[in-house]
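Quick question, first post here. What does this chain look like in 3D?
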Amino acid sequence: MMTLAPQTAQTPTDEDAAVPPRADCLADSAGGLTFDMAEPAEDGDTHLVLIHRDGIQEVRLPLAPAADGRLRAALPSFVELPEGRWDAFAQTGDGEPQRLTPGLNDLRSLVDRVPSGARGHVAVRIPYATKHGNLSVRSWLRAPHAEAGELHIGEGGLGVHGQVYGVALTPDAYAELTGRGETHPGAKLGVHRDQALFRFTVDYGDLPEGVWDLWLRPAGESGPRVRIARLLDDIADKKPIFTYPKVTVETEYGPVTAGPYYTSDNDLSVTVTAAAG
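> Answer (accepted):
Ran it through. Tokens below.
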């Protein structure tokens, strides 16, 4: 005789779990973002909520009906989004905000973007997927801004090319290297100007060990001090992607290995360490 096993409650599977809402994102060349997502099952007005990682600042964008039963929210370039990382949520009525996951991110307009700089600042917003698979936006708001372009790796130094936005380059312009920590005084470097374009060379042989941050003084000491960074593309985190070879040079402090890198904020820096052996 066949014995029937007693029935037990089934353990929920991954397929049974609620699927988190997903948002597609379209970036425009002016720095604006458009978010599209499916309509929620709940009734009530729905908002896309961007919450800064500090947990204090919040931006709420109404999601309005669009084509094919979807909802759309717009973040225009003229709406200020302070610099930092913003986590994206959807909230319907008084319900609990739900973390959004990324759908299709169309960032083609950000590649080789050349903003006018007419407003005196550069606004950059890049949507990206976090390591946990959620949707976030990395925002920069620089006024003025010095955009790093080509980096030329030489045998004993680094050639930096770039363009400045929101301020004019004057004959008093120079680049500045500042060492992290009080033991490293700043160093001034001459700048070659061509309208808004600039270039200069960092001689590794002049630098002691440490991390050196690169700045531009477009009007000399009397003007602003502008951090040199690479922001005008579609890559939110350049540190693990933009890697450069290091070179070994002799200095008055002994042999060192030096090379450029981008920080977690996409700012340009140079690291100098004692050469092995």
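The chain is about 0% helix and 50% strand.
The first strand starts at residue 22 and ends at 27.
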